[in-house]
Amino acid sequence: MVLDISLLNFLLSKIGRDRLNSYFDPYKDSLKTYIMPIEVLRPHEGTLDGYIEYIARDIIASGYVKYPIVVDIRTLVILDGHHRVEILRRLGIKYIPVFLVDYLQDYIDVYPLRKDIPVTKHSIIDMAVFKKAIYPPKTSRHIYYGFTVLPTYTPLDHLKTLTVEMSKSDTALNH
After folding, report:
1. Domains (ranges, CATH) in the chain?
2. How far is Cα 116 from Cα 107, in angstroms, rounded to an integer?
């Protein structure tokens, strides 16, 4: 399922992100994969250039994004996949496969990867949503219980085509 960027922007501008989230049933929509615009996602960690180059070579050589990124359905905070998001952004691709989870549920947990920076679910949401800041790269590790994020093998060509089609749609709506 593709969420149209112009529709999403319209809804966000008219009713706000908080009310928009209330229209989605997190139980019904979580644990599903969607294609979403990168621009609406909120990072909570930075990225490492060397790691981006390493992953980018694999994505470009294979021609697909193997795994969707993991995103909280309520806040659109990226939980896993910051490097993949940055790679697609640098390639000019505006859409990405996302696996939506309800971060407040017990089926997901977070652990700090850095001894000097404690993290919790609430501190991650606070950092990304309210402070609009990010932690250093590789600060947190998310663990999933009772499910596995399966590969979707989303072709880069599909995401590029979608980017071009939606850009033409946005241009037509603005004229």
Report:
1. 5-168 (3.90.1530.10)
2. 26
